[in-house]
Design goal:
Two copies of one chain form a homodimer. In chain A, about 25% of the residues lie in helices and about 25% in strands. With about 325 residues, chain A is an alpha+beta fold. A ten-stranded antiparallel β-sheet of chain A has the order 3-4-7-9-8-13-14-12-11-10, sandwiched between helices. A three-stranded mixed β-sheet of chain A has the order 1-2-15. In chain A, strands 5-6 form a two-stranded antiparallel sheet. In chain A, strand 1 (about 5) and strand 2 (about 15) form a beta hairpin. In chain A, helix 2 crosses helix 5 (about 250-270). Chain A starts with a strand and ends with a helix. At the A-B interface, strand 1, strand 2, strand 6, strand 8 and strand 9 of A face strand 1, strand 2, strand 6, strand 8 and strand 9 of B. Strand 1 of chain A pairs antiparallel with strand 6 of chain B.
Chain lengths: ~325, ~325
Amino acid sequence: MPELRQNLATREWVIIASERARRPNVYAEATDRTFTHERDEHDERCPFCVGNEELDLEVCRLPDDGPEWDTRVVRNKYPALAEVGPLIRTFNGVERFITGVGYHEVLVEHRLHNATLALMTDEEIRSVVEMYLRRGREISVDPRVEHLVFFKNHGERAGASLPHPHSQIIGLPIVPGDIRHRIEEARRFFDDTGRCVFCTMLDDELSRGERMIAENEHFAAFILYASSSPFHIWILPRAHRASFMHIDPSTLKYLAPLLRDVLFRLYTHLNDPDYNLILRSSPTKEPENGYFHWYLAIVPRLSRSAGLELGSGVWINPAIPEECAAFLRGE
Amino acid sequence: MPELRQNLATREWVIIASERARRPNVYAEATDRTFTHERDEHDERCPFCVGNEELDLEVCRLPDDGPEWDTRVVRNKYPALAEVGPLIRTFNGVERFITGVGYHEVLVEHRLHNATLALMTDEEIRSVVEMYLRRGREISVDPRVEHLVFFKNHGERAGASLPHPHSQIIGLPIVPGDIRHRIEEARRFFDDTGRCVFCTMLDDELSRGERMIAENEHFAAFILYASSSPFHIWILPRAHRASFMHIDPSTLKYLAPLLRDVLFRLYTHLNDPDYNLILRSSPTKEPENGYFHWYLAIVPRLSRSAGLELGSGVWINPAIPEECAAFLRGE
């Protein structure tokens, strides 16, 4: 019998389609390795490669002001949002719009064209997450920005158009409805129980263990009970905090190795699958609170969304989350 | 300057990325015509082809009980939901689940393997929408069913795995959160204004005209002001009604030609793009009301969702809706 499972935090339902279930290892075979592999260390046509830096687009680099950089943040050359301009709202019948002001930046994660997060060192990954934090804090100061999204599209199926390893940072002049709904659900749980729903989920996953992948002193990674797709993973900080921008920077040295561990398991067990990495955090102007909790989500693109997902928000997941977790643990 | 536009009904924001805007005709070139074209009329391995009918899976056919069928509804051989079984809810810490009972049916739209909705006759399309209505009404009677989703995945990028033209009907034992949010937004608009937000949008689009594609006595089709992707189309009935299941069947003869017209324009102007077709209707047990309004959505799969959409629900649309509408009107 198939099962409908509900994500306690978002209240979203997924169908775990046990009748169509596929063993976790089939997803390794399904991956077509055409994009991120066997590239050269340098591509002279790549805008993110050493030697092609457009310095007028550069925002910052690590190490600061060094002639050789490890990571860089640059403004997107074709930004979805414009950095300069006033925020103007216009409501005219059904036509409600806001000028598209905000930030659209690219974080170039590594000098080498053929590097990939899963195979970087802890130190290298740490400088990536440090850049997230630095730009997150800097952009948050802009009064026009209401919400920040940090994400990475790895591989073509995840929406990447350039293979050089990079993340994106978008500063929006609105809080999207989807985010409002999630916060509202978390607040409702808090009002009902007096607890953060994410802390509750984390405690429960830690005590059950069957969906855990890895953990350390400050972070824990598990496959979601109500995964919307195969190998859908959350990495939660153990300390309750609504905004990533408010974390103690010293904990970043615990995030990097855990992220590396999880991505390396996906890389080796699933043949470097395409995936999206998303950092979710409370809207920039909201104070710290007891109900929201920042986290990283990793969504491998191993199945395709279709009419049911578009039409109802219900996902069909043909993989059993507990089996996926055991597979990534190497059992 | 890019624009953020808000969908008045769903309150979702999209970024119309004018800086990255592409002329509508580029989408015709982007389509790879590998899937639905130049197929044979019959494929002996296709489970939906004449001669391969598994009669024990058949639910109904048109004409009724005829030896030769025009359209058939069959139970999905690998259903995401089981038709037989009790509805049992279990809440155990974070593990909240419901037995996966419900309906998962396939509507085979045509006898011929190489038929496609866009090229069918009005009569043929009418028998497809009549089947939606018939099964919708029959499934709604089951007390375990809370919500019905009718959809079609056309082409591989839209999630189709079999090329024989077909739709799917899913009867869910829950009302998904996504649907609840949309209804809530519509109700709020109604409480504020005394009007249905969909009727309001329709009136506005009809009077503006610039995003209209086609209309007749009972239905109208337009590109959404806040399209989440290029050529995102709604077909709205002019008569206010929350549930498709409550329509006057005589109006179906007006829906078929309009649907054909819209799909034919997409087919000819965009080279038979992959698309999802979704029929949205009020949950099965909710009475008729003044705020929700059933409709058809057509979402061509011409761009790919990525980290921003997953992480915030905000879509980046690189096509200007008004230009897309003019292009489909042949201007």
